[in-house]
Amino acid sequence: MKNLVFLISILFGVLLLSQNIHSQNMDHPKMDKMKMNMKQQLNLTEEQDKKIESLRLSHEEQMIKLKSDLELKKLEMKKLKASNNFSRADAIIITKDISAIKDEMALAKVNHQMDVYENLDPSQKKIFLEMQDRMGDRPNRMREKMHGERK
Could you tell me which residues come within 8 angstroms of residue 128 by beta carbon, excluding any fewer than 6 positions away? Predict the structure, then answer.
C-alpha cells in the first residue's frame, strides 16, 4: 500500500512539474514578442485587430477559469492523499476530473486558434499557418527535450 501511495505521489509530482513548466513557458516575455511579431507579419486591418483582441481576451478569461479549476482539483488530490485514508476509486475520480479539465483547456486553445484563423484573409491564413509550424507546440518540444524524445 505504501508503494502505491509513493508511486501515485511521484506521478502526481511529475504532473505538477510539467504543468508549472507549461505555465511558465506561456507567460514568458518571448511569447509576447512572438505574438507581436505575428501581429506585424499578418498586417491586420483595424477591424481584424479589434476582433482578434476581443477573442484573445475572451480566451484568456476562459483559460484563467480553467486553470483555477485545475489547481483546485490538484489541491483536492493533495488533501485526499494527506488524509491517508483514500481508495483507488477516489484517486481515479479526481484524476479523471483533472484530465477532463486539461482536455477542455486543449479544446479551448484549438477553438481560439480557429476563431482567429477564420478572421483572416487567404494570404494572412497562409502566414498564420507558416508561423504556427515554425513555433510548433512549445510545451511539447520542451517535454521532448527533457525526455530525450525526437520527432
Answer: 38, 42, 116, 117, 120
User: 12: which DSSP letter?
Assistant: H
CB–CB of 101/73 below 8 Å? yes
| Size of the chain in residues | 151
Q: How far apart are the first and last CA of the chain?
A: 38
Grid cell, residue 106, equals 486543449
Are the beta carbons of 62 and 105 closer than 8 angstroms?
A: no
Look up the pTM and report it: 0.66
User: Could you tell me the three cell numbers for 35?
Assistant: 505574438
List pLDDT tens digits, range 103-141. 999 999 999 999 999 999 999 999 999 888 887 755 555
DSSP 8-state assignment for residue 28: S
Give the integer Cα–Cα distance in Å for 18 and 121: 36
Q: Which residues contact 130 (CB under 8 A, 6 or more apart)?
A: none
The DSSP result for 32-78, as a single string, is HHHHHHHHHHHT--HHHHHHHHHHHHHHHHHHHHHHHHHHHHHHHHH
Q: Where are the domains of the chain?
A: 52-105
Question: Which of 4-13, 91-100, 123-132, 137-146 tops mean pLDDT?
Answer: 91-100
